[in-house]
Design a protein that fits this description.
The protein is α+β, with helices and mostly antiparallel strands. The protein has a domain at 49-190: Nuclear Transport Factor 2, Chain: A, CATH 3.10.450. It has six helices and five strands; from the N terminus they run ααααβββββαα. A five-stranded antiparallel beta sheet has the order 1-2-3-4-5. Residues 1-24 and 194-219 have low confidence and may be disordered.
Length: 219
């Protein structure tokens, strides 16, 4: 029984050895490469210049109604939509204003007014070329038709506002030019208060004459 077991064990061992040799001599077929699953890349959404201006005025309407502020004062808006150099110029002007106590602008360039009342805003693309573009926003402000233009540059593959311009009472203005020379700020704007009607205006008032003074003058 022990011999039979040993013989069977040896037979099994030889068979295993023979199978191993056969496998060693057999050509190895390379595994077929697994086909890679096709990858789909969603193209990045291209934000056109007109979309940027539309977003700015959407913010303008909201902030004017809530806080009376302008998007040009919002660091988040500037970081997202303005060119780096334009944002730097505005930030420098605000820093000087904090030191001097005088704001960079006496009006809001977004609404081209001191007191914004935006109605019927229409966005229109003017120039759209590789690397530069211009978009205009037309609207009613205090019943007066107003147009503000936005110059764009391509920066890091995205369209960014590089200047804001307008014409008020035949007087052209540009935010960049005003930042370089505040004297170039427009003088007449929608919503601008008439200094002659201001409560603190320097107006000479002649007191009425008393009845007895008039009687004295007639004699």
């Amino acid at each position: 029984m022990l011999l039979q077991y040993s013989t069977a064990l040896l037979t099994t061992t030889f068979l295993a050895a023979g199978l191993g040799a056969a496998l060693a001599q057999a050509p190895v077929k390379p595994a077929s490469p697994t086909a890679a699953a096709p990858t789909t890349t969603t193209p990045a959404l291209v934000v056109e210049p007109r979309d940027v201006v539309a977003a700015i005025y959407k913010s303008a309407v909201a902030t004017v109604r809530k806080k009376g502020e302008s998007p040009i004062e919002d660091p988040a808006i500037r970081a997202k939509y303005f060119s780096k150099s334009f944002d730097v110029a505005l930030t420098a002007a605000e820093t000087r204003a904090a030191h001097d106590g005088k704001p960079p602008f006496d009006f809001d360039p977004i609404s081209a007014a001191q007191d914004a009342e935006l109605q019927k805003v229409t966005i229109k693309t003017g120039v759209l070329e590789p690397g530069k573009a211009s978009v205009s926003a037309s609207f009613l402000n205090h019943g007066q038709s107003t147009v503000v233009s936005y110059d764009f540059v391509k920066e890091d593959g995205a369209w960014k506002v590089d200047d804001i311009k307008g014409t008020t009472e035949k007087e052209a203005w540009s935010v960049r030019k005003i930042l370089r020379n505040p004297a170039r700020e427009p003088k007449a704007l929608p919503g601008m208060k008439d200094a002659s009607k201001a409560p603190d205006a320097d107006v000479k008032v002649t007191p009425p004459k008393r009845p007895d003074e008039k009687a004295l003058q007639t004699h």
